Amino acid sequence: MIVRRAAAVFVMLLAAASGSFASATPKKSAPPAKASAAVGAWTLKTTELQANLKTGDFKAPKHVTMTREDGSVVEADNATGNYKHKRAILSGHVSIHDASGTFGLKSAQAVHRDPATLTADKVALNDTTHLYDAKGSVHYAQGQTTADADIAHLNDVTHRLDLSGKIHVVQGDRTLDAATATYNTATGDGEADGNAMMTFPGAPIAIATPKPITLRGPKIP
Q1: Model pTM?
Q2: Residue 13 DSSP one-character state
Q3: What is the structure's pLDDT at 85?
Q4: pLDDT value at position 159?
């Protein structure tokens, strides 16, 4: 659900483009020009990108847009990180639209997926440890499935996704509300806790803490 593919591509773009953009800060006397670079199928556009070739640290203080010919788009108000360590933090109106719908997750590669979109206030990506975090008004949408939470944390090594804070999941005519939830992106098993409630057509089921709802098998796209 959280954006390993975007992390890898963003880091790769910055690594390849850092040489030409290391001093690409626009002059104050002229209107800022939109700098761009194409690497593979991706194009990155921003008005200012600073990079340290020795340490790998980078900073894009202005709006960042990455596009791909298949329609995938990554946008954020700003970005910081280290391309050598494969880390990035996207902040402010973060929107990640992935046309493949997999977000690079290993457990999602073998199955055809509808396009998916993730939005949040901040997304932190670590493509070395394969840990990904989204915070603030987290919203995920794919096909008939939407999921909302305050915080989402994914460990793509263990395939464990943790959600917390006003969780609301809709899948077709079914809904799930809870304070916390875990989901295994490989097995489809999950658990919801904290006044958890699931609704089915004509059959609402409410179970309050400390009796969590346990789900077995049904994968959420």
Answers
A1: 0.73
A2: H
A3: 86
A4: 84
> What distance lies between CA 29 and its chain's CA centroid?
37
Asked if 13 and 26 touch (Cβ cutoff 8 Å), the reply is no
The residue ranges of DSSP E strands in the chain, in sequence order, are: 35-39, 42-46, 50-51, 57-60, 64-68, 73-76, 78-82, 87-98, 116-126, 131-142, 145-155, 160-171, 174-184, 190-193, 196-199, 205-207, 213-215
DSSP bridge pairs for 163 = 152, 181
Q: Across all residues in the chain, what is the average pLDDT?
A: 74
Beta bridge partners of 215: 190
- Strand pairing class (87-98; 78-82): antiparallel
Kindly report the length of the chain.
221
pLDDT band at 138 (very low <50, low <70, confident <90, very high): very high
Residue ranges of domains in the chain, CATH in brackets: 4-156 (2.60.450.10)
pLDDT band at residue 25, thresholds of 50, 70 and 90? very low
Q: Is residue 163 a contact partner of residue 180, using CB atoms and an 8 Å limit?
A: yes
CA 90, 95, 99, 100 torsion-angle sign: positive
